[in-house]
Specification:
The structure holds 2 protein chains of 2 kinds. By secondary structure, chain A is of the alpha+beta class. Chain A is about 25% helix and about 40% strand. In chain A, helix 1 packs across helix 2. Chain A is globular. By secondary structure, chain B is mostly helical. Chain B has 6 helices and 2 strands. Classes of the chains: A alpha+beta, B mainly alpha. Chains A and B meet through strand 2, helix 1, helix 2, helix 3 and helix 4 of A and helix 1, helix 2, helix 5 and helix 6 of B.
């Protein structure tokens, strides 16, 4: 597995993630902003993105509908606040609260800052995800731990689908 | 909101390896308490306590008719958890794994050092 480091400070409602990709910065930046490329990799394993629209300039909107293995649609959308090619993207991430997939508990909205740093031809991506409160951040971290179970949940789901 | 929501109840019921193992077993079909207790090194009353937690969370139901009251899995709360977790899985490496695969493909490179590349 490629190393990925997550950092969770106590006082600020943020989660920081960093990882190095073996590709030049321009290419990595394009993969984040070109809708055709973004649709190729966004979301958990096995998910597809039937709707993927970007408008990478300050004030521009984005929308991605992720689709799970069972066909459930998970709509996400937001707005680009800052786009500095090929260095940095800042965007909001708002879930569609009316979406069936979320039931009564839609996930919180977030503000993401993604930086692309050149490291000898490779690219270090650092993401800072800012939530509305430390409580919302802690809930997200908890979900991260739970995400470790999701492989077994996936297996369980496919068993259920087959039943 | 002060009331404990359904999702929290489901999550706390799932936050135990024995209860998750019981759910896995039930995914294969109904089972009695004795059958469920068999693989575990714990007493029948302990298994019954786990079943009670799962039942209160709506994750299993127990037949009222049959004397041996077989347990069966109830899928809908699990589906809610799976849906919710799907959102967060974007942030915890899976998207980045897929981005890594995508960037290799864009550069015409074979996936090296990533034996578990399985995105499609």
């Amino acid at each position: 597995m490629t190393t990925q480091a997550n950092t969770v400070p106590t006082e600020e409602p943020i989660i920081t993630t960093t990882r190095v990709f073996d590709a030049p910065r321009e290419l990595v930046f394009r993969a984040w902003t070109d809708p055709e490329q973004l649709a190729q990799w966004w979301g958990p394993h096995g998910f597809t993105n039937p709707v993927c629209e970007t408008d990478p300039r300050p004030g521009g909107l984005w929308r991605i509908d992720m689709q799970g293995l069972d066909g459930t649609i998970y709509p996400n959308k937001g707005q680009y606040l800052e786009v500095v090619k090929p260095e940095r993207i800042v965007y909001t991430d708002v879930v569609d609260e009316g979406a069936e997939a979320w039931g009564d508990t839609p996930p919180p909205s977030a503000l993401h800052t993604v930086t692309f740093a050149n490291e000898g031809g490779k690219t270090r991506i650092t993401t800072v995800t800012r939530l509305g409160s430390v409580a919302a951040r802690d809930a997200m971290v908890e979900m991260g731990a739970i995400a470790g179970w999701t492989q077994s949940l996936d297996r369980l789901e496919s068993l259920l689908a087959a039943a | 909101m002060t009331a404990v929501d359904e999702l929290s109840t489901t999550l706390s019921a799932l936050a135990d390896p024995t209860r998750r193992a019981i759910l896995h077993r039930l995914a294969h079909g109904e089972a009695t308490v004795n059958e469920l207790a068999e693989p575990f090194d714990i007493s029948l009353p302990a298994v019954s306590r786990h079943l009670k937690v799962l039942e209160q969370a709506g994750l299993i139901s127990r037949s009222r008719n049959a004397q041996w009251r077989p347990c069966r899995l109830e899928a809908s709360p699990l589906k809610e958890v799976a849906d919710w977790v799907a959102y967060y899985r974007r942030f915890w490496g899976e998207s980045f794994d897929r981005l890594d695969v995508h960037l290799r493909a864009m550069q015409g490179l074979e996936g090296t050092g990533q034996p578990d590349d399985n995105s499609s």
